[in-house]
Amino acid sequence: MSRALVTGPAVAALALGLLTTGPAAARPADGAGTPASAPAPAAAGELSAQAAVRPSLVLDRDFPDPDVSKFGDTYYAYATNEGKNLPWATAPDPDGSWTYRSTDALPNLGAWAQEGRTWAPDVSRRADGRYLLYYTAWHAASGRQCIGAALADSPGGPFAPVGTQPLVCPLTDGGAIDASSFTDTDGARYLVWKNDGNAIGATTWIHVQRVAADGITFEGGATQVLRNDRADEAGIIEAPVITKVGDRYVLFYSAGPYTTNQYGTSYAVSSSITGPYTKAFRFLMTTESLDGAVGGPGGADVLRDTGGDKLVFHGHRDAGGRGMYVADLGWANGNPVVRGSRVRYEAERGTLNNCSVRENAAGASDGKVVAYIDHADSSVDVGSIYVPTSGSYSLHVGYANGSVETATHTVAVNGASAGSISYPVTGWDSWSQASKDVTLRAGWNTIRLGKGIAFAELDFIEVA
């Protein structure tokens, strides 16, 4: 029989996942969920039933920390050094095909730098038509990393270094890496960067620096907007990129050791370019949230495009190095959603019909579940499910089944029947996951789980 009823509200507030109404609006989306287990990362080019929704490996070679922009009718990608100071590639479309270019777009570094550790480039076009490159390089005098600038008349270079000294080089704070540019809707330009504190056992901060139209002249001082203060970041945050969605600033960043599958991508949001920023509750992309399709997804860049926004990032390859991936990117009330990365919605935050929330559920996420889905009219409506593009998605349901037989729930998507989902016996408070493919429309969706055979409790659903 079903789990005993525990006193609680008959209807939970609809404040799950990406919904940002009421008090929940101050917190970004829950982001990618973490499945109980995940397969090993897929081999490059491996196809499966999920291939259409997983991020695409568009450059199958070592191409870390990709920076992608559209100049004219062509997309340009730049990467961390790999036999060149500035490797680059071009494509007619973000999804490819990409052509790796033979030349070095930055043939010479600034006089202050030595070759060997030229990282994380960023190329933007200035109002005067010239192309500005920010690059991280090895500071010869100190052995630390610092940020330099270079200019070119073409996005393919050759870029020529500006000045004889680095642009940003706070040696007492570990140096500086991972510069990126941002131009606000009012035309103001900013340089975003990270002090490399984790390299010397010091605090790491993301900084925002106002710059003049040339992208090189500083206006005022830098503002510290985000630091490495969460356990799941393993002391490391890096690769900051800012974009603006409506009146909300979204700061993407990577966290964790990049050589491992613990490396992932998260984000934080603010109503002001200089903060304060509020971090997402869960990472946006991890190896687990992508079901192992990409290992160590990070170094992300945002590509805003009239043909549909994309997130470009790197991930580990079986052949070694990190290849460049592209995924569809959408915005749910200003929070990013990446197609192929699981987003979690807690069942107890849905609209409950003739069932109840059970608290203090051992082993459940947030310690709360939906119980007593025992009647013909019992159901849980999980609304405000946002996806960036229409098509097939995987629905993963966290459940416990203490019945003596396999249980089921009926499934309806946006009011239309979508069959049922089955839950093998686990025992009460023994949580597992069941999966089912569903078709969702671009934008907002609602999924209803209703009474089927036998009994099961619901912890959460995840959509990828």
Short recap of the structure:
It contains no helices and 32 strands. It has 464 residues and is mostly beta strands. The strands form eight sheets. Strands 1, 18, 19, 20 and 21 form a five-stranded antiparallel beta sheet that branches. It has a five-stranded antiparallel beta sheet with strand order 23-26-31-28-29, with no helix packed on it.
Give a verbal description of the structure:
The chain is an all-beta fold and 464 residues long. It has strands spanning 56-59, 67-71, 74-78, 88-91, 99-100, 113-125, 131-139, 145-152, 160-161, 176-183, 189-195, 205-211, 223-227, 237-245, 248-255, 264-270, 278-279, 295-303, 310-316, 322-332, 335-338, 343-346, 351-353, 356-358, 369-371, 379-387, 391-400, 407-413, 416-423, 432-440, 443-451, 457-463. It is built from no helices and 32 strands. Residues 1-52 have low confidence and may be disordered. A hairpin with a 2-residue loop joins strand 2 (67-71) and strand 3 (74-78). The strands form eight sheets. Strands 1, 18, 19, 20 and 21 form a five-stranded antiparallel β-sheet that branches.
